[in-house]
């Protein structure tokens, strides 16, 4: 059974490891790519980090922008005491660890749940929080935190664009392995680019099961008049595996 993940493969990719271990053939093909900007503003933020109480990150691509700042200045991150970093998802947490940074909130399934987690800790945030995001980010976290009296500033540091190589890559996959049994969407922007610009260039996957990471991504798929066969409740490999097994009524899980 073959699965296509519409995202970029990581080094030592746990999605691949877990799915392979449970008998699936998996291939990651990114439907999106990213360009980075406002790096100078990020540099300024770190130089003035003592004026803030926290950094909020909901995408691993925002951590890539942090790494650009690190390499550009040949520096290690030095943050003040009582400064916190909040993230959604284990992959973002793990990438920050590679940069020598610890974080909180990675078990949050989405931005809304992370905002709730931060609000419970609002006593630690008399100073502003900085939300680092992409150009298509929703205002879920800033709006919710502001409604509870917290001050939030925002730096947009990456732009999401369609991956021009995707049609060729998915066509190569089909020629070699046939139509995938499962295709997994990781973000609303990936859904929009796929169905509005890219899917029309590729085969029509009528037999393919469609899965999403999170409810918001699922809602976006439905808005494209497509059915969602299962939803991974959290942005984790284990949650995705559970969703796949629910579609195909498979029992028994191999974990690491």
TrEMBL record:
Give a GO molecular function annotation for the protein: uroporphyrinogen-III synthase activity
Keywords noted in UniProt? Heme biosynthesis, Lyase, Porphyrin biosynthesis
Q: Share an example GO biological-process annotation for this protein.
A: protoporphyrinogen IX biosynthetic process
Q: What is its EC number?
A: 4.2.1.75
Q: Which SUPFAM superfamilies match?
A: HemD-like (SSF69618)
Pfam families, from UniProt?
HEM4 (PF02602)
Pathway assignment: Porphyrin-containing compound metabolism; protoporphyrin-IX biosynthesis; coproporphyrinogen-III from 5-aminolevulinate: step 3/4
| Tetrapyrrole biosynthesis uroporphyrinogen III synthase domain boundaries | 15-242
Q: Which GO terms describe its cellular component?
A: cytosol
Q: What enzyme class is recorded for this protein? A: lyase
Please verify whether the record's keywords include Lyase.
yes
Q: What's the catalysed reaction?
A: hydroxymethylbilane = uroporphyrinogen III + H2O
Q: Which family does it belong to?
A: Belongs to the uroporphyrinogen-III synthase family.
Q: What is this protein called?
A: Uroporphyrinogen-III synthase
In the record, what lineage is assigned to the organism producing the protein? Answer: Eukaryota, Metazoa, Cnidaria, Hydrozoa, Hydroidolina
Q: Encoded by which gene?
A: UROS
């Amino acid at each position: 059974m073959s699965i296509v993940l519409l995202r970029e493969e990581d080094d030592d990719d746990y999605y691949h490891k877990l799915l392979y271990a449970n008998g699936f053939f998996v291939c990651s093909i990114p439907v999106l790519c990213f360009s980075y900007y406002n790096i100078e503003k990020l540099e300024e933020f770190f130089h003035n980090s003592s004026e803030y109480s926290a950094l909020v990150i909901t995408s691993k691509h925002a951590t890539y922008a942090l790494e650009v700042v690190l390499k550009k200045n040949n520096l290690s991150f030095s943050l003040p005491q009582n400064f916190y970093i909040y993230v959604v998802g284990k992959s973002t947490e793990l990438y920050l660890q590679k940069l020598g940074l610890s974080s909180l909130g990675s078990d949050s399934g989405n931005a809304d749940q992370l905002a709730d987690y931060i609000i419970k800790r609002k006593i630690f945030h008399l100073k502003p929080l900085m939300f680092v995001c992409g150009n298509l980010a929703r205002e879920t976290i800033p709006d919710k935190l502001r409604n509870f009296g917290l001050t939030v500033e925002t730096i947009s540091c990456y732009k999401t664009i369609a991956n021009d190589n995707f049609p060729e890559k998915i066509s190569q996959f089909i020629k070699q392995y046939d139509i995938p049994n499962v295709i997994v969407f990781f973000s609303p922007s990936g859904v929009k680019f796929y169905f509005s610009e890219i899917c029309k260039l590729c085969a029509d996957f009528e037999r393919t099961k469609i899965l999403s990471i999170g409810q918001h991504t699922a809602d976006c798929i439905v808005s494209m008049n497509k059915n969602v066969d299962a939803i991974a409740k959290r942005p984790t490999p284990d949650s995705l595996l559970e969703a796949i097994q629910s579609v195909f009524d498979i029992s028994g899980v191999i974990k690491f």
